[in-house]
Amino acid sequence: MWSKSYSVVTKDVTGQQMWKLFADVNHWHTWDTGIEFARMEGRFEKGNFFTLRPKGGPNVKIELLETIENEMFLDVTRFPLAKMYDLHTFEHTPDGLRITNTITVTGPLGFFWRKIVAQKIVDNLPADVQQQIRAAKAL
Question: In what order do the strands lie in the sheet with 49-54?
């Protein structure tokens, strides 16, 4: 298993604003420059799926494993012989909202998927989270 986290504390947005940003999957392309599109039918809740196409990549089916409105969500992407989990948490602290994103890869071919997918995601987390904050602030 391989896992990496990135956290930032900000007073610019609330957990509700971050939740609203992520729950509107069909508009992720308006603020996430790394994707062509993301599509979801139904609600942003445990058990539902959405499809995402990274720029220059194939469509990826992602399942929501757990959701707690305004606080966190966990999703999983299944690859051949590996899974990638993406945990987003929004924790209220005295200093502001702590936004944490943790990517975890498991499975016999986890090393391969870490190298070609997960590491790139982790490397971009600081810039991506700042973009998410800017987009959520505008809501």
Answer: 2-10, 96-106, 82-93, 72-79, 60-68, 49-54, 35-39
Tally of structural domains, the chain: 1
d(CA 91, CA 84): 23
**For residue 88, what pLDDT is reported?**
98
pLDDT of residue 91: 98
Q: pTM here? A: 0.95
User: Residue ranges of the chain with pLDDT lower than 70?
Assistant: none
Q: CA-based Rg of the chain, rounded to a whole angstrom?
A: 14
Handedness of CA 93, 126, 63, 41 (dihedral sign): positive
Whether residue 4 contacts residue 89, with contact meaning beta carbons closer than 8 Å, is answered with: no
Residue 130's domain comprises: 2-137
> Which region holds residue 39: left if phi is over 0, alpha if psi is between -120 and 50, else beta?
beta
pLDDT for residue 92: 97
* 110: CATH: 3.30.530.20
